[in-house]
Amino acid sequence: SQQGEEDPQALSIQEGENATMNCSYKTSINNLQWYRQNSGRGLVHLILIRSNEREKHSGRLRVTLDTSKKSSSLLITASRAADTASYFCATRLGGSEKLVFGKGTKLTVNP
Amino acid sequence: GAVVSQHPSWVICKSGTSVKIECRSLDFQATTMFWYRQFPKQSLMLMATSNEGSKATYEQGVEKDKFLINHASLTLSTLTVTSAHPEDSSFYICSATDRGYGYTFGSGTRLTVV
Predict the structure, then answer these.
(1) pLDDT in tens, B64-87
(2) Rg (Cα) of chain B, in Å, rounded?
(3) Residues with Cβ < 8 Å from B28, sequence gap 6 or more?
(4) Is A104 near chain B, with CB under 8 Å?
(5) Contacts A–B by Cβ distance under 8 A
(6) Contact flag A48-B102 (C-beta cutoff 8 Å)
């Protein structure tokens, strides 16, 4: 099963521009996480935002969470070609430890 | 930080054979391990959850007799794809968690069945 739906499914921008990806989910959450995956590789954890937080920053990353709308956004500022990857949001289901992923956004940053 | 080692990174096998994928937590004890499957250009789909010393819990639609999971210790979980067929070709990723470390992912295994 999949919890989150990201949009857009694919995003192509120029280096230096900002990239915004959105994620919507269906059930109540304790936290929401964003991951990055380079092609054919494992996942790298980017940032976690708790349900009682509205915004969180980490370097060039900014994540927002709107629990009333069950949505989150990931903003990458001043993008670089090295940011080219797929980005996934993930949430835990109920009281379990299962981490369920959204469909992901494939970001391409053109040099 | 927490590291999960997954091997092999890629494997090609003949149809009908079995393939074992290992996932080891190197510097922490993984109370729970998860196995995911990812088809090209798609997201990760959770296959099963395993806890050390107990039977794995499979997600709906995942054949437990085909995807054998063993979590024999707090640092090792294995996924065996039995009697593999071309439709089993996929990218398999493990993840381990210890409450203090969150989730750590292996680097994935690309399985190609010919």
Answers:
(1) 999 999 988 889 999 999 999 999
(2) 13
(3) B2, B96, B98, B100, B101, B104
(4) yes
(5) 52
(6) yes
